[in-house]
Amino acid sequence: MNAPETPASEPAAVVERYARRKSGSLYSILRPEVILSTQEWQREMLYLLGSTCGYSVEDLGGLKVVDVGCGFGGHLLDFMRFGIAPHNLRGIELLADRFALARTRVPPTILIHEGDANSADIEPASQDIVFQSVVFSSLLSDSFQQELADRMWSWVRPGGGVLWYDFVYGNPNNADVRAVPVKRVRELFPEGRVVVRRVTLAPPISRRVCKIHPAAYHLFNMFPFLRTHALCWIAKS
User: Fold this and answer.
1) Rounded Cα–Cα distance for residues 78 and 81 (Å)
2) What is the pLDDT, as a whole number, of residue 2?
3) At a CB cut-off of 8 Å and minimum separation 6, what does 163 contact?
4) Measured between alpha carbons, how far is 109 from 107 in angstroms, rounded to an integer?
5) 5-16 b/e with 16+ CB inside 10 Å = b?
6) CB 201 within 8 A of CB 221
7) Which residues lie closer than 8 Å to 183 by C-beta, 6 or more apart?
8) What is the DSSP pairing of strand 227-235 with strand 156-167?
C-alpha cells in the first residue's frame, strides 16, 4: 500500500499521531532495557564520530549540531556531555509540550525552534552534524519525508553529515509509524555516502529478557537479526 501523499498536512498529522500515543513508563530510563539500549547506540554513535568521521576529542567542542525532533532535550544534553559547546547546539521540536519541557531542561544558550523543521531558520551548509532520532518513522508521507531530508541535507556543510537513528522493521500494532529500511535512507540522501551500524535489541525481546536479568540484553543482542534500528552516518563530500 502506498503511503498517503499529503506533505502540507503532514506536520499536523504527526501532532495528532503523538496525541494518540500512550506509552506510559514504557520508555522510562529507569527500565533496564531502555538504559542498556540507550548506552549501546550512544557508544556506537561515538565510535562512528571517531572512526568513520575522524573527529578527535579536541574537534567535538567546535562542531555545530542541530537536533531535528529534539523532544524533551535529552539528546541535546547528551551532545553537551560528549563535549559539544552549548552555543553550537540547536534543537527543533514540532510538539508544543515537548518544546516547553526541553526549554526548561537545556541551557538558554541552546536555541530551540518550535514548529515544523522546514520553517527553521538555519543557514545552508552551516552544520557539521544534522541529527535525527526516530523522526522519519513517524512520517507517513513519502513526499514529506523527502522534503525534510532535502532540507536537512542543505544544512550540512561539505565534510559533515546526517547522523541518523531509526527503526528498520515495522510495528504491526502501530499504524502511526512505519519502518525506514536502509534502502529508503539511501533514496532520501542519494548524494550521501552511507555507513550503517545495526543496533538496539528488539524492544519486545529486550523487555522480556531483562525481566530475567539485564545481562541477558547483551546475550541476545549478539545476533544482528534481532536488532531493530539502523544507526547511520550519511556523509556529504
Assistant:
1) 5
2) 45
3) 45, 48, 129, 130, 131, 132, 232, 233, 234
4) 5
5) eebeebbebbee
6) yes
7) none
8) antiparallel
Q: Residue 48, SS3?
A: helix
The neighbour count for residue 48, using CB atoms within 10 Å, is 19
H or E stretch covering 127: strand 127-133
pLDDT of residue 27: 83
The angle, 0 to 180 degrees and rounded to 10, between the axes of the packed helices 32-47 and 203-212 is 120
pLDDT at position 3 is 47
DSSP single-letter state for residue 53:
S
Residue ranges of the chain with pLDDT lower than 50? 1-4
Burial (Cβ within 10 Å: 0-12, 13-18, ≥19) of residue 116: middle
User: How many other CB atoms sit within 10 Å of the CB of residue 156?
Assistant: 23
Scan for cell 555516502, then name that residue.
Answer: 193
Query: Across the chain, what does the average pLDDT equal?
Result: 93
**SS3 state of residue 139:** coil
Q: Which helix (H) or strand (E) holds 167?
A: strand 156-167
**Phi, psi at residue 66, to the nearest 5°?**
-120, 130
Cell of 79: 551532545
Residues in the chain: 237
pLDDT of residue 23: 66
Integer Cα distance of 111 and 66 in angstroms: 9
CB 193 within 8 A of CB 228: no
What is the pTM for the complete model shown?
A: 0.93
* pLDDT reported for residue 170: 86
